[in-house]
Amino acid sequence: MGYGVSSYRVDIAKVEHAFGHLDSAERNQIIQCCAEPLEDLDELFEEDFSALDVLKDYLDGKVSYPDAASQYWYVFEQLCRYYGEWLNNNQWSPASIEVFSQLPSLKFYNLIHKFLPSPDDFPSVYFCPRDKHAALREELKNCDASVTQVLQFSSWLNDELDLVLFYY
What we know:
Shape: globular
Helix content: 40-55%
Largest sheet: 5 strands, antiparallel
Strand content: 5-15%
Mean pLDDT: 91
Number of helices: 6
Oligomer: single chain
């Protein structure tokens, strides 16, 4: 088993807005929708707090566990899934991360989110805002990915939503 990419098409502003800016009804709806998928994270990380605690922290606009950066970014992924759309990744799982270095429009940890600490491990997070999709389409034509990978990656691009990739 190798590493792979999970891709999401999402309005990143909605995910960032969720950091401390939601009313209680929307906050509770997110908690209800994300609680079950976050249980899997608790099995990966042996902490004195749960992934659900990290989600609540995020929704409250806090980072109470700064040494748990990875958990915040996995919660961020769940919010991308909640607000956006998970995209078929069968050509990118497993996949090498090397091709991403050939795509300058795809930025590593270049999200506008100024409060989350950068993880010292997985997930690796890549971002391409919608206004850079045309440039990314051109870059894909000259990268070392397979034809099927390029076709699938191109299908992820939508000029109305941002692209966020999680590599783990």
